[in-house]
Amino acid sequence: MSGLERYKKIEKIGEGTYGVVYKASDVLTGRLVAVKKIRLGFGEDGVPVTALREIATQRELQHPNIVKLIETIHTGKQLFLIFEYLPLDLRHCLESSSNEDSQPSFSKQIIKSFAFQLLKGVAYCHSHGIIHRDLKPQNILLDDLGTIKIGDFGLARSFSIPTRAYSHDVVTLWYRPPEILLGSDKYDTSADLWSCGCIIAELFLGRPLFEGDSEIDQLYKIFSILGTPTQELWKGLTSCRYWREEFPKWSQPRLAEILEDVEPSLLDIVQNLLLYNPQNRLTALDALSHPFFDEFAVE
Question: What's the whole-number mean pLDDT along residues 267-295?
Answer without folding.
Answer: 95
